């Protein structure tokens, strides 16, 4: 199997600036709803890990580092359920990310929803869902088109 890019992300932007603008706008909703930038990046890294999007994993790790997120929080995301370094709010966001990234044949139980919604006021919950939806869409583009990861910063 080749790992060469099928379409570069820059080429995708040029092919459809409207798509790019819409995707960016959806991604910005979380910030306008009051979610912290570091939480947003942890969610984006986690969804990208689940979806196997190397481009998005590296892109959001780079942003997380720029924000000053503790390296251990970035490193342990792959095993966040067993890690003790995440706050209850971060754990709720990561649980939501896991559940909404792999949704086929699965319902979100009332108990799971209570934990997630208990950590986020309704407006922030809406922003969290927008973040998870947006990164999952980006991941699908990245995986299908084989976007090449950026260099680590």
Task: Please give a structural write-up.
- The protein is mostly helical.
- It has a single domain, classed as AhpD-like, CATH 1.20.1290.10.
- It is built from eight helices and no strands.
- It starts with 8 loop residues before the first helix and ends in an 8-residue tail after the last helix.
- The longest helix has 24 residues.
- The radius of gyration is 15 Å and the shape is globular.
What brief labels describe this structure?
AhpD-like; 153 residues; 69% helix; globular; 8 helices; mainly alpha
Give the N-terminus to C-terminus distance in angstroms.
28 Å
Q: Low-confidence runs (pLDDT<50, min 5 residues)?
A: none
Structural class: mainly alpha
CATH superfamily: AhpD-like
Number of domains: 1
- How much of the sequence lies in strands comes to under 5%
Order of helices and strands: HHHHHHHH
CATH topology: AhpD-like
The helix tally amounts to 8
Apparent shape: globular
- How helix-rich are the residues, as a percent range? 55-70%
Number of strands: 0
According to CATH, what is the class? Answer: Mainly Alpha
Described by strand count, sense and barrel closure, the largest sheet is: none
Cα Rg:
15 Å
CATH architecture: Up-down Bundle
Overall mean pLDDT stands at 93
């Amino acid at each position: 199997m080749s790992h060469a890019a099928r379409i570069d992300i820059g080429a995708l932007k040029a092919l459809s600036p409207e798509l790019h603008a819409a995707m960016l706008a959806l991604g910005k909703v979380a910030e306008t709803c009051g979610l912290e930038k570091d939480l947003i990046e942890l969610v984006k890294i986690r969804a990208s890990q689940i979806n196997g999007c190397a481009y998005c994993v590296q892109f959001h790790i780079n942003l997380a580092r720029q924000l000053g997120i503790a390296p251990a929080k970035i490193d342990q995301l792959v095993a966040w359920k067993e890690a003790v370094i995440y706050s209850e709010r971060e754990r709720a966001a990561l649980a939501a990310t896991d559940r909404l990234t792999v949704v086929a044949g699965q319902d979100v139980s009332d108990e799971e929803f209570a934990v997630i919604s208990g950590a986020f006021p309704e407006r922030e919950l809406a922003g969290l869902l927008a973040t998870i939806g947006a990164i999952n869409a980006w991941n699908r583009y990245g995986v299908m088109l084989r976007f090449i990861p950026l260099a680590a910063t």
